[in-house]
């Protein structure tokens, strides 16, 4: 069997094998690229409540915490509270956080829940597990490299690397180089 | 995948196993940070703030009002889960100083005021600022104390 046949077999079978992970990395890649515009990991649910008889001068104690929770109707189990500033109070519940602005008398209850599927995709793509997954991700990267290199030699003739293929390869290299020149150097 | 995320949510262990048993209060470090530079300490507290994009850092509330301690690995080797707010953290690590020029200090204070939970007082930035953080060796994050 000549080398091109082996090349094409590797390219084909590696392509099948890696399609699952490539879909995960592609979707997560777009999500991670826009992390500052959109939280792809969590769905944040928040509710705002106006509070009565609360000001920056109100003494902060458990009685105040109970009062605020009663006004907001939040029934999650109380864990703790903390004052980051003189006018702000955070109440930590088991199901979320109530953030109180004592100057404006407003409380915001925030609850985060994991965005199904995307959270898991990001967890894998960003290697948040570490350990064995680091090796798996490295093997995937090597697989992608082989997929790219074998892809160059799949076709012969006018549609192959010596024909139109070379122009696409050059364009694919020139694009990132131009961006580097514009934004990096 | 979904089962894995449930298993992952009870307690998160990051970095090395925590060895120090004695807890140093956040107030001790905040009030006399120079006494703790490069010393390995254990701190605990509810997470009151943190980096919501990359999970680069968290802040734990102290035993006294208005005091927080930022836990931030110097080389970025420990990344915190993004749903950290309101959870309880136990961290072991060394306190280190971060020197900011006046311009850097102003930008830092403005950043905190705009996005996070701290009052802006630009007087603090005059002449530059020194921030004190804990670079963690090991961290445990869980729902309850």
Q: How would you characterize this protein structure?
A:
By secondary structure, chain A is of the alpha+beta class. Chain A has helices spanning 3-33, 62-72, 118-125, 132-151, 161-183; strands at 42-50, 78-85, 88-93, 96-101, 106-114. Chain A has a five-stranded antiparallel beta sheet with strand order 1-5-4-3-2, covered by helices on one side. In chain A, strand 2 and strand 3 (88-93) form a beta hairpin. In chain A, helix 1 (3-33) packs across helix 3 and helix 1 packs across helix 4. The radius of gyration of chain A is 27 Å and the shape is elongated. Chain B is of the alpha+beta class and 145 residues long. In chain B, a hairpin with a 6-residue loop joins strand 3 (57-61) and strand 4. The chains are: A alpha+beta (185), B alpha+beta (145). The interface between A and B is medium-sized, with 30 and 27 residues.
CATH class descriptor name of the domain at 12-98 and 135-142 in chain B: Mainly Beta
Number of strands of chain A: 5
**What structural category characterises the helix and strand content of chain A?**
alpha+beta
How are helices and strands ordered from N to C of chain A?
A: HEHEEEEHHH
CATH topology of the domain at 12-98 and 135-142 in chain B: OB fold (Dihydrolipoamide Acetyltransferase, E2P)
Q: Quote the distance from N terminus to C terminus of chain B.
A: 28 Å
Largest beta sheet: strand ordering of chain B: 2-3-4-6-5
**Oligomeric state of shown chains:** heterodimer
């Amino acid at each position: 069997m000549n080398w091109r046949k082996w090349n094409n077999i590797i390219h084909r079978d590696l392509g099948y094998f890696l399609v699952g992970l490539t879909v995960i990395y592609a979707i997560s890649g777009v999500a991670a690229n826009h992390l500052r515009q959109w939280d792809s990991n969590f769905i944040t649910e928040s509710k705002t409540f106006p509070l009565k008889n609360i000001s920056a001068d109100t003494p902060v104690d458990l009685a105040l915490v109970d009062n605020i929770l009663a006004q907001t109707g939040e029934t999650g189990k109380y864990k703790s509270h903390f004052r980051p500033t003189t006018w702000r109070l955070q109440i930590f519940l088991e199901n979320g956080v109530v953030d109180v602005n004592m100057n404006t008398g407003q409380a915001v209850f925030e609850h985060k829940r994991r965005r199904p599927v995307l959270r898991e995709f990001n967890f894998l793509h960003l290697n948040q597990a570490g350990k064995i997954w680091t090796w798996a991700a490295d093997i995937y990267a090597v697989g992608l490299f082989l997929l790219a290199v074998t892809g160059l030699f799949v076709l012969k003739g006018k549609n192959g690397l010596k024909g139109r293929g070379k122009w696409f390869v050059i364009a694919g290299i020139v694009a990132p180089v131009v961006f580097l020149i514009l934004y990096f150097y | 995948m979904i089962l894995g995320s449930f298993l992952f949510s009870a307690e998160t262990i990051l970095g090395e196993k925590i060895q120090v048993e004695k807890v140093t209060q956040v107030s001790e470090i905040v009030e006399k940070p120079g006494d703790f530079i490069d010393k390995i300490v254990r701190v605990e507290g509810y997470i009151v703030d943190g980096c919501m994009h990359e999970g680069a850092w968290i802040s734990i509330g102290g035993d006294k009002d208005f005091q927080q301690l930022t836990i931030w690995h110097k080389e970025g080797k420990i990344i915190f889960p993004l749903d950290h707010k309101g959870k309880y953290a136990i961290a072991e690590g060394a306190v280190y100083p971060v020197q900011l020029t006046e311009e850097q200090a102003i930008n830092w204070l403005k950043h905190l005021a705009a996005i996070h939970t701290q009052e802006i007082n630009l007087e603090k930035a005059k002449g530059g600022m020194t921030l004190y953080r804990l670079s963690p060796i090991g961290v445990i994050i869980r729902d309850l104390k």
